[in-house]
Design a protein that fits this description.
This protein is 37% helix and 19% strand. With 238 residues, the protein is of the alpha/beta class. It folds into two domains: 188 residues, TIM Barrel; 33 residues.
Length: 238
């Protein structure tokens, strides 16, 4: 069977997004997606609500429960977990995820991480393309995956509806379970495109409002003005 869907994106259950569960479902149906791995920051609540919605309306979409957690070494994604991970100390985090039968993904390796090599050795897949990351660091992620002979994946890391289409993935699962295929199968990216600069500003402004951070808000306004003056606001990250 061929699976087509998204890995690593965010909804209104994240602190930097207002993307609704209903809009995610509509996107999936309109683009013939049959699996979704929603990975909100620090919580599986969004993924659980997504699954409830799919089950309520009996939709042909497989939902994998997961989240993106800020561990002691940086962001790591846990998929196929049953409850929120409690320990953020990296070694304990890994044990807890594996204890739940989960899968570990390494998102945007060269953005906000420490001990990158250590993380790479413990995860199941490494993200070699992130639409919110520049070309140079995506290339470094590809080399990292190759060095440790790790399976790979690509992600939109979408925080807005517009970004959802940046990275649709496809893989096949015939003689094994979906979860085993998600961990081991070769995943193809059908349309990897970078996000626009204004989308990053938008998500950070949402974060500043949800956290009531005036410092972050004004820093993003400043960045907005800078991008306008340099005519980059509506350009894709390069």
């Amino acid at each position: 069977m061929k699976f087509r869907g998204l890995i690593h994106f965010h909804s209104c259950y994240s602190y930097d997004s207002v993307l609704s569960i209903k809009k995610i479902i509509n996107f999936a149906l309109n683009n013939n997606l049959n699996f979704l791995c929603l990975t909100d920051h620090e919580t599986i609540e969004g993924a659980q609500e997504l699954k409830k919605y799919v089950e309520k309306y009996n939709l042909p979409i497989k939902i994998i429960i997961g989240a993106e957690y800020k561990t002691s070494l940086g962001d790591v994604i846990a998929l196929n977990i049953k409850s929120n991970i409690k320990s953020m100390e990296f070694d304990e985090f890994v044990k807890e995820v594996k204890g739940q039968g989960g899968i570990l993904l390494f998102p945007h390796p060269y953005k906000g991480h420490k001990e990158i090599e250590k993380i790479a050795q413990h995860v199941d897949r490494i993200e070699i393309f992130n639409s919110r990351v520049d070309k140079k660091n995506n290339k470094k992620a590809f080399k990292l995956a190759k060095k440790y002979n790790k399976n790979t994946y690509c992600a939109s890391d979408a925080h807005t509806f517009l970004s959802l289409k940046n990275c649709i993935l496809e893989f096949e699962s015939e003689k094994t379970s979906f979860i085993k295929a998600l961990s081991n199968a070769h995943i193809t990216c059908l349309n990897c495109k970078n996000s626009f600069y204004f989308e990053i500003i938008y998500s950070q402004l949402i974060k500043s409002i949800k956290y009531r951070s005036f410092l972050l808000f004004f820093s993003q306004v400043k960045q907005f003005i800078k991008l306008c003056l340099t005519f980059r606001l509506f350009r894709r990250i390069s």
